[in-house]
Amino acid sequence: MQVKEYKPLIVAFCCNWCSYAGADLAGNNRLNYPADVKIIRVPCSCRVNPMFVLRAFQRGADGVILCGCHPGDCHYTSGNYYTRRRMALLFSMLDYLGIEKERTRVEWVSAAEGAKFAATMNDFAEKVAALGENKRLEDLRCKR
Amino acid sequence: MQKITRDQLIEKAASLLANGTVSCVLGWQKGEFDYDITPAVFETEDELKANFVWNDFCGANFSKYLVSKTKKCEGKILVFLKPCDTYSFNQLLTEHRFDREKVYAVGIPCEGMADIAKVKAIAGDGISAIDCSGEKLAVTTIYEDAPVMIDAKDVLAERCVNCKSKKHVAYDELIGEDGDVIDSARFDEVAKIEAMTPDERFAFWQNELSRCIRCNACRDICPACTCEKCVFGNPNSSLENKSPANSFEEKMFHIIRAFHVAGRCTDCGECSRVCPQHIPLHLLNRKFIKDIDSFYGEYQAGAEVGSRAPLVNYTTDDLEPGEVFERGDN
Amino acid sequence: MQRIGVFVCWCGSNIAGTVDVQAVSDALAHEPGVVFSTNYQYMCSQAGQNMIKDAVAEHKLTGIVVCSCSPRMHEATFRKTAAAAGINPYMVEIANIREQCSWVHKDMQTGTEKAIILGKAAVAKVNLNTPLTPGESPVTKRALVIGGGIAGIQTALDIADAGFPVDIVEKKPTIGGKMAQLDKTFPTLDCAACILTPKMVDVAQNDKIRIFSYSEVTDVKGFVGNFDVTIKKHARYVKEDICTGCGACTEKCPMKKVPNEFNLGMDNRSAIYIPFAQAVPKVATIDPNYCNMLKNGKCGVCSKVCAAGAIDYTQKDEFIEEKYGAIVVATGFNPISMDKFDEFAYNQSKDVITSLEFERLTNAAGPTAGKLLRPSDLKHPHTIVFVQCVGSRCDACAEKGKEYCSKICCMYTAKHAMLTRDKYPDTEVYVFYIDVRTPGKNFDEFYRRAVEEYGVHYIKGMVGKVTPEGDKLKVQASDLLANKQLHIDADLVVLAAAIEPDKSARPLATMLTASMDTNDFFTEAHPKLRPVESPTAGVFLSGACQGPKDIPETVSQAGAAASKVIGLLAKDKLTGNPCVASSNELMCNGCSTCERVCPYGAITYENKEFRMPDRTTAIRRIAVVNPAVCQGCGCCTVACPSGAMDLRGFANSQIIAEVDAICK
Amino acid sequence: MHNKNQYLQEELLRTSGVNPKKCMRCGKCSATCPAYDEMEYHPHQFVNMVESGDIEPLLNSKSLYRCLSCFACIDRCPRGVEPAKLVEAVRLAAIRKQGANHLKADDVPAMLDDDIPQQALVSAFRKYAK
Amino acid sequence: MKVSYFPGCTLKTKAKDLDAYARKCAEVLGVTLEEIENWQCCGGVFSTSRDEVATKLSSVRALKAANDKEQPLVTVCSACHNVIKQTNHQMQTDAEFADKVNRYMAPEAPYGGETVVYHYLEMLRDLVGFDKIKEKVVNPQTGKKIAAYYGCLLLRPNKVMQMDDPENPRIIEDFIRAIGAEPVIYASRNECCGGYVAMESPELAKKKSNAVTSNAAAAGAEMMVTACPLCRYNLVKNGSEIPVVYFTELLADALGVKEDTNA
Question: Which domain holds residue C52?
Answer without folding.
Answer: 4-127
